[in-house]
Design a protein that fits this description.
By secondary structure, the chain is mostly helical. It has one domain (2-86): MFS general substrate transporter like domains (Growth Hormone, Chain: A, Up-down Bundle), CATH 1.20.1250.20. The protein is built from six helices and no strands. The protein has helices at residues 8-21, 26-33, 35-59, 64-83, 85-96, 99-116. The longest helix has 25 residues, at 35-59.
Amino acid sequence: MAKIGISASLGVFLVNLTNVVFIFPAIPQLAKYGRKQILVFWTFVMLIALFSMTLFSEWWHFSHVADYIELGCVILFVAAFEMSWGPITWLYLAEICNDKSMSLAMLANWTCGLLIG
């Protein structure tokens, strides 16, 4: 981030803001299009974002414009995840798990998140 004149804290803020904002349109989208179409479409968008990020960070890194495109690809990936796999995973867990197993799944999720992050 420092290469393009954006502080690391601003970059983290932008990614986290994207993470929060894109939860809200995911809920009506689920009701309108269904889970399968959403997962297929947004997973494809995530694939394009990762592929583009690789292209601009490894092969087409000619100027500072590529750095901005990389940041945009990260934000696009997070937005696509929050429109698909993020909420749908919890929806599936709520449907197939009883209360005890749901609480264990949440405990495992938070524990792994704390260990990794």
